[in-house]
Amino acid sequence: xxxxxNHVPSIEQLKPGLVEIIEEGGGSKQFFLSGxxxxxxxxxxxxxxxxxxxxIEDFSAEAIKNQIAEAQKVAxxxxxxxxxxxxxxxxxxxxxxxxxxK
Length: 102
Hints:
Layout: E1 10-14, E2 17-22, E3 28-33, E4 36-41, E5 45-50, E6 53-55, H1 61-75, H2 81-100
Antiparallel strand pairs: 1-4, 2-3, 3-6, 4-5
Helix pairs in contact: 1-2
Domain F1F0-ATP synthase subunit delta C-terminal: 59-99
Domain ATP synthase F1 complex delta/epsilon subunit N-terminal: 1-43
Subcellular location: Mitochondrion inner membrane
């Protein structure tokens, strides 16, 4: 999703994934969001509301791989019904993160 001049106001749901913010000076910053909403307001002003967001450089591929393995153990029946449901959600987020961390 990109926001250009005179963009139509809208609200979009964000799935877990990468957000890149391109600054006016030409630089950019990347963040991983666990999900949320993006709101485009009149004047092409963008607001992002997310429960969690972290700079992409805070993650390592090895740590993500280890967390996925642990979540898979729980999701495959290694806990209560609530633990299994939470592990499946964690897997969805971790797999999205794994796709963007190199």
